[in-house]
């Protein structure tokens, strides 16, 4: 477990570089990421290279004993490149060309940009591929940031048609898969297919879903182009930095081509925006979230919410089922949320340990020194504008000392898995049906219910190997086919406890309905579903389970049991006594179906018997306190702005505000 920092030597006078590197070392950092936005300073005009400064910067870091992660500079094509070609800039959904003057303005499908990418990445890979200090690579920077996965230019239209032809082979198959008979949308050839934007009202959701898949694949191919070149000249690990709660491309697919995943962790900005990241806003997103109401945001304003952070740690661990890195860790204030509070003292340390608790190998802070101008002037670094240490430097130093005293901790396999899937996120956000629908929020509700019981949670793709988990939860498993259902059925037959959440089994993989729902899942769930209810935002209804009433919001599947046993029924006047929660034994295991969008407490009530049956020990934790188990120790973390008393066997009686305790077994 190591620490690092993101560094922009090109921003600062060269005489500061040697003292900077020395101080990085003194703090206890071992990794420095450089270069990812430096194209213009490396190639001021076409074919004129000025790599000498980067040579000196990397040599300097290497001589100080620091490892360098070198970024390819493709997130910021310089002005001369944009002016040289007419097919590099992206076109947004509204048909407007995205201009030069910030970053990520290129189209992944531009032939010219692919050619330029090949050229610059080859030059960099050749030059630094065997450099002793360069120990890792980062491709580009944050694919998709600023809503840049989906581009609506002519390059994309051309490539989308090719992609569709490969997928459907004949246009009749596509027409049928999308049900284009509706509104006379049938095409006569692939050359007629348009992009799903600028239509009068919404485009066909099947069309949009395929376009989202295509756009995601375009990112994956563009990344692979870079990875293949880097591999030719270097044997060092290749990474890319993902963002938190960002779902415009399929990260599982991207991860296959990388050696390790890194992600950028900005807990305070993320909480401010919860649960809408600027590029995630779909037709159903309102900007407010019942899971993170204002009082909660006030409470965690200076620490972020533990589960909102660690959900991403667990998701990114799950991409490759191995340790990830946090390559950008918030060290102080950020600049990009609507409001940007300062973190409380001790919180940078808390975030860093939390990342290690969830399986990070490296945590690197963004950035070394606060920027003296341009877009990110209001963003903190480890150092202030004048280069003198900011408070995060002390906290990083403290963590480095703690790590040097800590013996290696091994990740512990969790027994509970949550199935997260990008295509289900897309399908349900394309047609949200309820204004409050938010796939992330539903996933987080399940995640929070489990984390508050002290359980480690693996976040994995639905088609992952499931046999090692005792309990598997699948909220909104919307798109299903026979092969996925066979996979889940095998798991249950062999003794797995499967929990299926609302809105599952409704659609085919091409986004048409299963009639009746849940299609191929009918036997496993023991129900059919012919009706769903969508509730107005903020409206609550109840289900009755014995003498208990549990609230639900947003969504309800009206279940008609075929073979399953009813555990709870709806109280709503509109569909009183209809089944809401059902269960059935199947093979050696069981399948519990929760038809409505329950809240965190309600889920705990419903899940308790299953967790018990699976032999999992639960610990009711106070709000904001989290335990993460590793092989030989447990991390106890307190995100509350106050000390908290505990009454849990094996844990200390008290944990200080924003405190971290590592409890040895
Ligand atoms: C990230 C990005 C960095 C920087 C940072 C500011 O999204 O990768 O380059 O912009 O945010 O918080």
Task: Describe this entry's structure for a reader.
With 665 residues, this protein is an alpha/beta fold. The protein contains 19 helices and 24 strands. The longest helix is centred in the N-terminal third of the chain and has 29 residues, at 205-233. Strands 9, 10, 11, 12, 13, 14, 15, 16, 17, 18 and 19 form an eleven-stranded mixed beta sheet that branches. Strands 1-2-3-4-5-6-7-8 form an eight-stranded parallel beta barrel, surrounded by five helices. Helix 5 runs parallel beside helix 8 (205-233), helix 6 (154-168) packs across helix 8 and helix 8 (205-233) packs antiparallel against helix 15 (422-430). The structure holds beta-D-galactopyranose.
Estimate the strand proportion.
15-25%
Attached small molecules: beta-D-galactopyranose
The global form is globular
Low-confidence stretches are 281-286
Helical region count?
Answer: 19
How much is the average pLDDT?
Answer: 96
Largest sheet: 11 strands, mixed
Q: Which class of secondary structure composition applies to the elements?
A: alpha/beta
Percent of residues in helices comes to 25-40%
Rg, nearest Å? 25 Å
Task: Tally the beta strands.
Answer: 24
Ends apart, CA distance between termini: 20 Å
Features:
665 residues; alpha/beta; eleven-stranded mixed beta sheet; 32% helix; 19% strand; binds beta-D-galactopyranose
């Amino acid at each position: 477990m190591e620490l690092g920092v993101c560094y922009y030597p090109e921003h600062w006078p060269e005489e500061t570089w040697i003292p900077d590197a020395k101080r990085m070392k003194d703090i206890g950092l071992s990794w420095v990421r450089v270069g990812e936005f430096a194209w213009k300073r490396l190639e001021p005009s076409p074919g004129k290279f000025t790599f000498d400064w980067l040579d000196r910067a990397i040599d300097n870091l290497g001589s100080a004993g620091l490892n360098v992660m070198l970024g390819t500079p493709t997130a910021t094509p310089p002005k001369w490149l944009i002016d040289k070609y007419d097919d590099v800039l992206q076109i947004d959904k509204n048909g407007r060309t995205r201009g030069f003057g910030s970053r990520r303005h290129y189209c992944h499908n531009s032939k010219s940009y692919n050619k330029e990418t090949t050229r610059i990445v080859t030059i960099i890979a050749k030059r630094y591929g065997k450099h002793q200090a360069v120990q890792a690579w980062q491709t580009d920077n944050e694919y998709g940031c600023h809503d840049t996965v989906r581009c609506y230019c002519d390059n994309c239209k051309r490539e989308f048609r090719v992609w569709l032809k490969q997928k459907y082979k004949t246009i009749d198959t596509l027409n049928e898969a999308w049900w284009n008979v509706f509104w006379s949308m049938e095409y006569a050839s692939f050359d007629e297919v348009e992009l799903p934007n600028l239509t009068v009202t919404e485009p066909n959701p099947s069309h949009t879903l395929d376009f989202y898949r295509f756009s995601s694949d375009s990112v994956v191919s563009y990344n692979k182009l870079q990875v293949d070149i880097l591999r030719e000249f270097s044997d060092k690990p290749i990474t890319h930095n993902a963002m938190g709660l960002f779902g415009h491309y399929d990260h599982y697919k991207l991860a296959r081509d990388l050696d390790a995943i890194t992600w950028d962790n900005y807990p305070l900005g993320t909480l401010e925006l919860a649960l809408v990241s600027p590029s995630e806003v779909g037709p159903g997103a309102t900007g407010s979230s019942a899971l993170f109401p204002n009082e909660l945001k006030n409470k965690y304003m200076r620490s972020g919410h533990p589960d909102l952070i660690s959900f991403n740690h667990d998701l990114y661990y799950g991409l490759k089922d191995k340790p990830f890195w946090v390559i950008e860790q918030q060290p102080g204030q950020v600049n990009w949320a609507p409001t940007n509070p300062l973190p409380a003292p001790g919180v940078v340390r808390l975030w860093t340990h939390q990342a290690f608790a969830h399986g990070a190998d490296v945590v690197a802070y963004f950035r070394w020194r606060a920027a003296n101008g341009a877009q990110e002037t209001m963003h903190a670094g480890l150092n202030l504008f004048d280069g003198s240490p900011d408070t995060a430097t002390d906290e990083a130093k403290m963590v480095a000392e703690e790590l040097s005293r800590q013996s290696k901790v091994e990740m512990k396999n969790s027994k509970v898995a949550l199935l997260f899937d990008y295509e289900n996120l897309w399908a349900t956000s394309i047609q949200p049906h309820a204004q409050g629908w938010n796939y992330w929020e539903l996933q987080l509700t399940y995640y929070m219910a489990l984390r508050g019981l002290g359980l480690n949670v693996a976040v994995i793709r639905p088609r992952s190997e499931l046999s090692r988990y005792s309990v598997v939860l699948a909220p909104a498993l919307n798109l299903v086919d026979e092969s996925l259902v066979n996979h889940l059925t095998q798991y249950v037959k062999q003794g797995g406890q499967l929990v299926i959440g609302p809105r599952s089994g409704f659609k085919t993989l091409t986004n048409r309905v299963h009639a009746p729902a849940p299609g191929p899942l009918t036997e496993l769930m023991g129900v059919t579903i012919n009706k769903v209810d969508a509730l107005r935002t903020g409206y609550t209804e109840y289900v009755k389970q014995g003498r208990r009433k549990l609230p639900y919001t947003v969504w309800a599947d009206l279940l008609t049991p075929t073979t399953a046993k009813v555990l709870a029924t709806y109280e709503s006047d509109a569909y009183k006594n209809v089944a809401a929660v059902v269960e059935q034994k199947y093979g050696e295991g069981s399948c519990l179906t929760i038809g409505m969008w329950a809240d965190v407490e309600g889920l705990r009530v419903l899940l308790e018997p299953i967790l018990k049956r699976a032999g999992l020990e639960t610990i009711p934790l106070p709000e904001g306190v989290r335990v993460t188990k590793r092989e030989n120790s447990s991390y106890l973390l307190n995100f509350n702005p106050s000390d908290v008393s505990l009454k849990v066997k094996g844990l200390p009686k008290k944990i200080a505000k924003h405190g971290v305790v590592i409890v040895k077994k």
